[in-house]
Every structure is written in C-alpha cells, then in structure tokens.
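Q: Hand in one record:
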Amino acid sequence: MMSNPNSNLLNDTCVDVRPKAPAQPQPLPPGALELALPTSKLWECGRVLDFHFLRGTEQQKQAFRQAAAQWSQHANLLMRFDQPLQNAEFRVAFDNAGNWSYVGVDNLSIPSPQTTMNIQQVSSILHEVGHALGCVHEHSSPASAIQWNKPVVYQALAGPPNNWDKAKVDANVFERYAANRTQFSAFDPASVMLYFFPASWTLNGVGTNANNTLSSTDKSFINRCYPGCSVDFSKPTIASGACTVKLGPRVLFNQFFGNSWLMNQPNASFIEVAFTQPKKYAGKDIYRKAILKLVHLTSMAGSQVGNSSIDIVVNGQVIKKDYSPPSSNFIAEQWDITSLMKDGANLVRLNFKNAKTNYWIQKLHVDCDRILS
C-alpha cells in the first residue's frame, strides 16, 4: 500500500515464489463479491500460524498483533505472536526498507532465520498479513479491468525510490493471475489489498484509493476461503480463528501439565464457541459437510478413568448427553453436525455435568470442507 498518495510510487511488494500467468477478465455472476487468492497459496483451515518478531519496538509489535488479529476474526486460522524462531512460519522485521511479504504457504519454503515479512509503516500491516494468508494484490485479480496508461506507469516507476524496469512493472502492476488457479470474484475498490493508483495512470482517468481497513468483502471472502472455526486450548492464552470464546465458572488453564484447559465445577462450568458461517458465497456453496472435532479427555480417578461427563450442544441441540470421553489420555473425536448448521450465526457449547474429576480440552474445531472453484 502507498503511505503517501501524492508520491505516485508503490512501496509494497507481493513476493510470489511461483510463476503466474496473465489472464483476461472473467465474467462473473450478478452480485458477486470480490478479492483474489491463488488456490496453491491456501493454508489448511484451522492451522495455527506462529509469528516471530526478528526486531522492532514494543509499540510496533503491539500494532502488529492488533492489526493481524483482525484477519483471524474472519478466517479459520489461528495466530500466535512472540513465538520461538524455530517454530515460526512468519519472521517479521521492521527495520528494512519497504513493506513486503511472501504469499501464503510460500512462507514455508523460506529457510529460517530469513525474514518473510517486513513492515516499514505500521499502516501496511493489514495489507502484508493479507499476503501472508494468501491474498494477492487486488489489481492482479483475474477480474481486474483497470485500463492502464502503460507509458505513464513505466515512466513513473522507473525513477526513485522504485527504479523498476519494464519487466518488474509488468510483473507487479500489469500481470493478472490465471482464473483457473485463483479463488476470486469481482474487483473490489475498497479492498485493503488494493494499491493506490493515481488517475493519471489510467486511460479513463479512474484511479484507486489507499485502503487501510478491511472491507466488507475482505471479511466475507477470507471466510469463504477459510470456513469453519477453531480454538486452541493448549496454551495459557487461548487462540481462536473466526469465532469468539466464552468461559463459565472454574474454567482454568491446566497449570500442572501446561497443555490444556479444564472444567471442574459441576453444573456450572461451560465453554461456549460462537461463530458466523454462511452456507453460500456469491450464490455458490462454501462447504458440503461440517464436522465438529474435539481433542479432549476425562482425567483419572485413582487407577480408573474418571467420570467427568459433559453435554455437547450445537445450536441448542444436544448431540452427546452426559458424555465422558472414554480415555485417560487425550483423544480426538468427531461428529457430523452438517444438519445442525445455520446459515450465519452458530453456537457450540460444552456443559460440565456431575463429575468425580476434571474434563480437559486441547482443541475444538468445526471443519467445513471448503469447496474451491
């Protein structure tokens, strides 16, 4: 994104380590929404993405945490910050020139400790994190139909600070991603993934704005690409993707083992996960099935498996009543909740019942098997 709309120069780079093919604008259904994301760049839904700050002030880091988390409010991806270098998919610096990021899963091919993202202006954080999640520049969408005045653009970007030759201008400004390899719909002039372009750069005198907030389309599109929701209970700070978490009385982090949260007040403790998941996007189904997955356990009562029963409730419907996970160690279980899913607001609730011991949970995940175009 441009930090100075009057400079007519770009200062953000989308670092794509795979080639992209030019494509003609594609016809779209009436009412289609916008944004673009190459299918090959998608992360697995529900993945925990770790960020390591290579350098930076505490003010810069806090600005990053707050901005990046806006994406995970709408995408079924979990973000953890200040993570160890060796475990981090993203390694963020603040002291190099320019704003840039590798795109989506391309970050995994960059050897540690190399930087995978640089932030020069904090106003560019949302944009760069969008790249990290897989989004490309909106003007590179297959649906983009900007009428470029190419000689003017070549001349403007040939000088400082860009000093780009024609090939680099072609790759960063004029080329579009191929429609058959990209999740996209119509062009979004309000997207945070759009560069500022002055009117003089186009043949029809229509420029674009510098957008520093997520548009309504940014939010709905990233949900379409990463449907469902996830909650990671394995750390003292609960991480969530595309949902909010409400905890009842005596729901505590497991200090002894340090790998889960527990409920231990009978008929009072509960965990409630609320998420919004439409069934369709631009008139097409987003998913075929919705599967509720839990990683949990009932702790031991002496030498026997404890009886720590819960009710599992989905949108007011009890799918497991007085249920005690049959293990003294963490187990992964799943239930098909497709028929219970609503088109919009959904709620999963775990109610702690009469118990001899604790109920422990590591992860809750609603897996909506995304349908990719």
User: Anything to note?
Assistant: The domain at 12-221 is CATH 3.40.390.10 (Collagenase (Catalytic Domain)).
